[in-house]
Amino acid sequence: MRLVVLGGGESGVGTAILAKEKGYDVFVSDFGKIKDNYKEVLVNNGIEWEDEKHTESLILNADVVMKSPGIPEKAPIVKKLIEKGIPVISEIEFAAPFTKAITIGITGSNGKTTTTMLTYHLLKSAGLNVGLGGNIGKSFAEQVAEDKYDSYVLELSSFQLDGIINYKPHIAIITNISPDHLDRYDYKYENYIDSKFRITMNQTEEDYLIYDADDEAISGWLQKNKTRAKLIPFSLTKTFEEGAFIKNNTMEAIINQEEFKMETESIALEGKHNFKNAMAATSVAKLMQIRKATIRESLSNFQGVEHRLEKVLKIQNVEYINDSKATNVNATFFALDSMTTPTVWIVGGVDKGNDYNELMALVREKVKAVICLGVDNRKIIDAFGNVVDIMLEVNNMVDAVRMAQRITEKGDTVLLSPACASFDLFENYEDRGRQFKEAVHNL
Description:
alpha/beta; Rossmann fold; UDP-N-acetylmuramoyl-L-alanine:D-glutamate ligase; Protein-Tyrosine Phosphatase, Chain A; 3 domains; 6-stranded mixed beta sheet; 23% strand
């Protein structure tokens, strides 16, 4: 069997290692440059590779192709593979059959990283032999090759779900759905929604789907479509006989006739959206039969995720918060919604077709100044120019943070929550967040 791997990053190299171990003839091809540390791994494992090109004669003879999630289906080489009828799958689809471990798959437009990390924290704290992978951390395929975990918590993007055929998680979570990455879905929101729901397409009556019952896109899909999985909803406003909800400042989760309760003020993560993440993770913990005391302790000591509403420093009684992971409007909505003091908002980057109207009420109520950090800020200026007193443009993070410091007063908050992708001025959202933190520490 010949496996060709497109993309020589974490998921590509991990897949190549697993395939080689299972006796495949493996070839890795990357149209960009493969990083030196990954090249070293490929060479040490005796895996053939090329970069800065795709040699068709070495690719179109594949029996199966694993495509890294960052490569769009519109890429010429992918189109040719599909025309030839060669299966193009994701790392998750390739690796899953080689492990007996159960997987917990987590997807959603926002909150999936926090929910994944929190779920992993709950299971690990309970002493389960659990791995973390998917869109985060070490390659799932490489961990399967090492074969040391009984269960995995996987963060799954819509791109990874597009490449599954038979994969099913035992427990699936959809945190929420809002328009994102529409450039990859022919600008059709329903295509993106369908893509997220692929997480449940192979589930059976023995499996579970945990979902946000307050989310319109999720509820709409579930009304029109069927899944065989057992449904476990969570909500901030409704209550359930089975599911998780908030009532009188208490989080309740009722699963398999067993009830769990915890005061919301004891939960380490702040903000309503984080209560949702906590309900989703708690539902998994209950399904995995983890003790109530362990769940309580884990929810109260969880540290949160870097670049997601991360408190950086307080300088002269001004709080600086790094929310660089907010790459769409919906994520920034949660961030602004959780602000309790006058806010200087740093926003901008590569716009993915954003509609800023959703933020209008929050900006009027909470934002005293907007600092635009992007190559093209026209849309942001048009949207909020008449709404805030101060509107500034900068083209690097150091200036953004210095400007913010100049216009803040005691008791204010400076929030980096870009609502956009980062590729115009930064390598990625992590780079953007790190530069913000560095600039704040240098004030």
